[in-house]
Amino acid sequence: MAEVCSIADLRDSARRRIPRAIFEYADHGSYNEATLRANRADLDAIGLRQRVLIDVSDRTLATTLVGEAATMPVAIAPTGLTGLFHRDGEIEGALAAEEFGIPFCLSTMSICSIEDVRAAASKPFWFQLYVMRDRGFAASLIERAKAAECSALVLTLDLQIQGQRHRDLKNGLTVPPKLTLANALDIARRPGWALSVLRGKRRTFGNLAERVPGGDSLTTLSQWIAGQFDPSLSWKDVDWVRSLWPGKLILKGVLDEEDAKIAASCGADAVVVSNHGGRQLDGARSSISALPRVVDAAGGRLEILFDGGVLSGQDVLKALALGAKGCLIGKAFLYGLAAGGRGGVLQALDIIRRELDVSMALTGTRSVQDVDNRVIAHP
Ligand SMILES: Cc1cc2nc3c(=O)[nH]c(=O)nc-3n(C[C@H](O)[C@H](O)[C@H](O)COP(=O)(O)O)c2cc1C
Q1: 273-313 residue pLDDT tens
Q2: How far apart are CA 4 and CA 342, in angstroms?
Q3: What pLDDT is stored for residue 131 in this prediction?
Q4: How many Cβ atoms sit within 10 Å of the Cβ of residue 348?
Q5: pLDDT at residue number 186
Q6: Of 88, 198, 216, 254, which has the most beta carbons under 10 Å away?
Q7: Ligand 1 centroid to 274 CA: how many Å?
Q8: Are 279 and 260 in contact (CB under 8 A)?
Q9: 141-155 burial by CB neighbour count: b if 16+ within 10 A, else e?
Q10: pTM of this structure
Q11: Measuring from each residue's beta carbon to the nearest atom of ligand 1, which residues come in under 6 Å?
Q12: Is 28 labeled as catalytic in the residue annotation?
């Protein structure tokens, strides 16, 4: 295989290895994908300030994320259906994060269950919660996250109704999933993936399977989930979750300064400035353009995490410069996972680490703690 230099190389490799429907599920956004593109375009438009003759021989990327030590200011974002990108993908992701020394966040919509990941991992991980119509089920997920000693609960706020992703509809990745002739032929061309993932013992939504009658079928569960997103969710539900979860609470999907002000007053420890990777409201502002506004509105009362379009260490540096404490990576993680399982995730993390380290040095910065607005080249 050709030298892997960047996340783009891992993306190419992922595209070759996994069925098209799954690759496109990760790679695309909602509707016309304006927000997906804006996430990248606005990061690209930010320049960095080159500085010279500053002694940067002694550098460190070490930091803390929501109170936990991390070897760099990056965490793995929660992504649904991760176990379809690689057999036991959530376990592989958690073990890679553990080895690298950064947080891993497991999605409610994972293939491996909370208990599966807990049994395989030796360090605590974060759990992402969707509060569904069935509040009893949400409460039981919180109890399971407590029992698994999860170190933070990430409550996702921006999916009380689902945006449409055209690619998923066209590819038959719908509710219920459609096995089209095109999909069958595509899978047949990727026997390595088929033998590994389709023959694995985990092939449905691991956290939900026991709750729903017929829950061992992806189709039945997908139908149940589609009816479970709750448009009536409100800040009162955040209070309710806060009352059940005594540990660190991270609110994910805050993009607007008014919401940031409310979030700061409801007892959360951190927010993730996020538009769900351009997968929800198409036309929403890019995450990076929202970041400084949220930082201002939070006024130091919340730790600010960031996601949306992060594909390099330079992107991480820009987000830190605009006030984030750390970044979550969604697609960059999935490309690595699909390309090479745990080793591919480690490769992705190492690429980002090296890019961040070199970019810090070339902006004259020794520690991630010192990164601020001065590394940005203002027009
Ligand atoms: C395939 C995929 C599945 C996702 N599933 C979830 C999920 O289950 N829960 C959640 O809170 N966010 C989910 N997200 C959003 C990510 O957590 C994160 O906000 C986003 O991917 C960040 O943008 P990036 O992909 O450009 O890094 C998903 C993202 C992708 C790409």
Answers
A1: 999 999 999 999 999 999 999 999 999 999 999 999 999 99
A2: 15
A3: 94
A4: 30
A5: 85
A6: 254
A7: 9
A8: no
A9: bbebbeebebbbbbb
A10: 0.96
A11: 25-26, 39, 77-80, 107, 109, 128, 156, 252, 274, 276-277, 279, 307-310, 328-332, 334
A12: no
